[in-house]
Amino acid sequence: MGNRPTIADIAKRVGVSPGAVSFALNGRPGVSEQTRARIIEVAREMNWRPHRAARALGGAQAGVVGLVLARDPRTLGSEQFYTQILYGMQEVISAGGSAVQMQLVRDTAAEIDLYRHWAAEHRVDGLVLVDLQLDDPRIAVVRELGLPAVTLGLPGEPGRLPSVWADDAEAMTTIVDYLAALDHQRIAHVAGPPVYQHTARRTSALREQATARGLAAESVPTDFSDAQGAAATRTLLSRAERPTAIIYDSDLMAAAGLGVALEMGIEVPRQLSIVSFDDSVLTRIVHPALTCLSRDTYALGAQVATSLLAAIADPGSRESVRTETPRLVVRGSTTRPG
Amino acid sequence: MGNRPTIADIAKRVGVSPGAVSFALNGRPGVSEQTRARIIEVAREMNWRPHRAARALGGAQAGVVGLVLARDPRTLGSEQFYTQILYGMQEVISAGGSAVQMQLVRDTAAEIDLYRHWAAEHRVDGLVLVDLQLDDPRIAVVRELGLPAVTLGLPGEPGRLPSVWADDAEAMTTIVDYLAALDHQRIAHVAGPPVYQHTARRTSALREQATARGLAAESVPTDFSDAQGAAATRTLLSRAERPTAIIYDSDLMAAAGLGVALEMGIEVPRQLSIVSFDDSVLTRIVHPALTCLSRDTYALGAQVATSLLAAIADPGSRESVRTETPRLVVRGSTTRPG
DNA sequence: GTGGAGAACTAAAGCGCTATAGTCAACGGC
DNA sequence: GCCGTTGACTATAGCGCTTTAGTTCTCCAC
Fold this sequence. Notes:
Two copies of one chain form a homodimer. By secondary structure, chain A is of the alpha/beta class. Chain A has helices spanning about 5-15, 20-25, 35-45, 50-55, 80-95, 110-120, 135-145, 170-180, 195-215, 225-235, 250-265, 280-285, 295-315, and strands at about 65-70, 100-105, 125-130, 150-155, 165, 185-190, 215-220, 245-250, 275, 290-295, 320, 325-330.
């Protein structure tokens, strides 16, 4: 049953010392090719696997990388995006024999706490930081703990952590370009919490674009919950001069917004165009399907994992990887106003 | 920096042996209360944490429990439910200083593979098995590996693993009761893959209920994807004698079904009532909001975690916990037909 | 006053693996 | 023919913790 073979068992069977077996199995010099082959064969035969804990104890790696999502339980449901990221990461990380540990916590304070615990217990080899904030407190903590980390979302300026990012400003411009071409004059933006860097970037990009083109534009902050997304939509649509197009920072809020429009008897897209900043199954199942920015989230997760592995291998690295700007996928929720 | 204090450091500082420190910190007898207090204080002062790997190596636990989701990448998006479960589990598991390791894999074969890896590497102390199948191959594997496990969803018959479950048949009856009271005569059921035990149970419960009441009822199997949910809905609604109510086995498919109805110009709920077997943010944001079976998924996750911890503590235990049958939450998607 | 029980410790081994220092034989060059 | 190398190993220590088997010391009973 649970009697896994150890390196010593293999050594005995092959007739060499445990050290030799370790060399052989780790591709280190110190054994002849012949012996190495024999050892590897026996190891396979005996169905040997390294004991993670034993390796980790020897000062080596824990074989786990962490991804923490700080979410108010009330805003649960917005993790579609991260489920995909997780999947993409896992593909890369498991190939290296490690695992991704995802954990949901209540807020950033709890997240930082968790990092300290993990670091103290040697539980993880590296971290992915998501939902970057302005002046993000996590950066200093991660540095202090000496944990390799990669940020997802913003160019690596903050504390010079390596990062994987896409250009949010450019993405917003793509949307505004399109809406302006359709002749929308009043555009609203149901944004996330202003403390998030990506929200800030999108908001300022929208403002710039609107000014440049002489459009009326407005960003409404929310906490990313469906409730606040719906509430913001209701407010916007209750105005005398209501917007003809609304851009939502998440697919969940976009879907909620669509629900509100239906509820208020406002036709989508005839009277209101809707664009979501995220793509997911959600944007496809509602009717009309939502026009949105889409990208290969799975690949993004894989890229993050790759960058993280690089950061773990070389803790000095600060390389920042820019990924493709999400492209606009036009579906049934947008048209000319009128 | 990464120079965590060890038990030996504490021992030196207090002036006792490492063994004594271990006793003290683990609440084991062998030290005086006075010394124990002193040791605990110093440990806190030095910010000591147990080194997980070292503990695990000593034959103790890995401090991780696993939850694997087998999902065809195409059907990704249906994990809302499990995100909640995960959250609930984490609350309980982290309280005990452990962590939940969730992993997404392609199919059951990959899942079994993963279990073997995890067992061989001593990575997890226990498992939660979800999406139970008829004659589930995982049960034998888990038993063979000697890994404590709890199943979620079905009474623990299969191989007598402890389980946490709710009565699916009763739940289905609740729905049919309600629809029958509204005077629906033709009810359809967009189900999951028949290989799943819960699908099988719901399907047969529907058949029984329909027979007993003289209703026309039909279950259509799908793979749980939004695409097949939509396709099944299209087929059902294209019939001459179309159903006046459809029950969906997941919130995702229900939302997709609603989208199809809108697309076909069929009014919900006037011409079609929709009931979802799962609740989530999704059922609330669409319009009309969906009538559904609802339960406290978070609490369910917590219960699963509790049962799993019990199973780990006492591997012989087979206790099965029955949870409340989900209750019907009526929203805007159901009414009398006509 | 002595034997023994119990409390409060210490000493040391061991978990499975890695890493470093050493051993030993074969080989080659001058 | 001897020294120095090199290759192929072995021996051993050590990672941080738990645990078992001692070792003291005190206290009490007879």
